Amino acid sequence: MSADNSTSQEIPNPAVDGSELIRFDKVVKRYGSNTVLDQLDFSVASGKHVTLIGPSGSGKTTILRLLMTLVRPDEGTIRVGGQYLTHEEKNGRLVPAGEKHVREVRKNIGMVFQQFNLFPNMKVLRNLMEAPVTVLGLSKDEAEQRARELLDLVGLGDRCDAYPTQLSGGQQQRVAIARALAMRPQVLLLDEVTSALDPELVAGVLDVLRDIAHTTDITMLCVTHEMNFARDISDQVLMFDSGHVIESGTPEKIFTEPEHERTREFLGAVL
Amino acid sequence: MNWNWSHVDDFMPLFWDGVELTLKALLFGTLIAFSLGLVWAIAQRSEKKWIRWPVTVVTEFIRNTPLLVQLFFLFYVVPEWGPSMSPLTTGVVGLGLHYSTYTSEVYRAGIEGVPAGQWEAATALSLSKRRTWTSVILPQAVRRVIPALGNYVIVMLKESPQMAAIGALDMLGQAQGYSQATFTYEAISVVGVAFIVIAYPASLLLRALERRLVR
Amino acid sequence: MMSSEFFQNWFLPGIWVTIQVTFFSAALAFVIAFPIGVLRTSRVWIVRFLAGAYFEIFRSTSSLVFMFWIAFTVPPVFHISFQPMFAGVLALGITYGAYASEIVRGALAAVPAAQREAGIALNFTPAQRLRRIELPQAWPEMLPPFNNLLIELLKGTSLVSLIAVADMTFAGDLLRLVTNESAPIYTLLLGLYFVLAFLLTRGMRLLERHAKKRVGQTPEKTSLFGGMRSRSSIDAVTGTGGAK
Hints:
By secondary structure, chain B is mainly alpha-helical.
């Protein structure tokens, strides 16, 4: 399993290891009168595993939702692999992008949700095959082979014919991870993927993610409250507060000698 | 296109007579539907099987057969052994009876929506059965079903022209009479537009009411 | 009593006409309901407005008056003519299509937003999301209110007798004029409608169970006499309710 982008050759892809893959420039996101992200700048290098931490309401999940284009920024720009995500250049000016452009850039991004969001009307195998066939245009055989490999990877090779409702939460989340990977994204967004799980099921999901993090060069952007997991897989931890990155660094640095008062408070409360 | 506005002008006096009759039928039909529906709903919650069963059978039968045929039945069959009714009276009884089986479902949902704790509280206060219904359950149930009941009034309005089939001179009956007498066809259009003009604002009103009452 | 000859010549064909009118009107209503219901969820306001206008206008229309209008006003005004049955099917299909569009819209709106988001995350186009994710999940939710609406439609087909379509109500009326025996005729007629409604309900329940199984839900058991009306948050008769 690798995050090679064999299916996206037509995209000029300047992202080689170590270069910038995701870039937020002065991004503002408001919900009504509530400004969740305020002039946010940050970037993620290709192949890195970045964890976003911070109190709830600090805008971490909004960043993932912006990247997945589930919400659009009010101001500022987001670039993925050097391409604008929700804007396109026309006559030297940036204008809001059309659906086609968004999809073109978005195909480099995959996401795993807190509530799994598997399609209840499809069996497990078809959950994994549907998008590769309809969106990427893979043949059924190819898609099925890819799906079965991924299900083996997450330890559910024997549950191909189950409906999602017949699986435990942990199993559903592993299927959801496999489903996201079936699209061969360069970036995997993980939105509190263990928060909805019973405690005894968390470890299985984290093992799968750890495995993926260590054996592939996929870029991961992860919002989590599992600090041990963050420490284990992250190259970089970003501490958020009130829509700003107030501190960033290696997990060792953030978890053992945080500089910022707010970081210390937050870690003191969750660890 | 053949269209003659003077036919519309000529029809208007008859049209207003028709409106009057339609609204009269609607008013009395609604009264029957609202009260009889409540009787059905309460009867269907009865503990006695011999009350519950016949009521269920009768309401199911009425609800699943056409109003038009029921009107024919009331108009042609009932007088053979019962009272003879005018077309208007038949229309009122038919509409009221038919839609009472729908309002009973509305009441039922409303009654089921009253939290079980309310019944228990009434028992704890040793209220009589009648008192429990009239001062605890129904006031809460009826309030939340008012918009749904109102929607059925609009449905009854739209179905009321079926009275014309037994000779009632409602809006449609007047239009038919005028058209056949004068060999013209404008009158139906007037009536058709009139229904939209009455029903649409009424449904807007109910939606506003729903937002205020239900939540 | 009713002569068997008359029964064979009028009543049996009448039953068949009622079934035909029900079938064709339901088909037309179905074909109208899906595009209108989907367009009513459009992000483009003018599309939403026009589809919504269709719903509001025909929900506010009396189907009998509309049927008379199509049968008796349209032909002379627009210089076209058609079969009475065509006029009846057209009127029923167009009005019930409006009600059914509310069922489609309400069921689509009830599909969790998270499913749409999962579709975006897998880079489906909006059309693919609708076709592959939203409609298949909304479908089982549509069937109970569709069942209720279909019964209403079956009852509504009796109106075609008033524009001289020889359905079973028409046959009953004719028979009354000929024999002057109204009690057995109308009792039989009501019984026939009830039986047809019962059969339709059985058929729809089967469809419902099948559809629920296909989306991985376990269908609840319904008793034979558990009432013919299906429970749904959408009131098909008044065209109200459902998720906003």
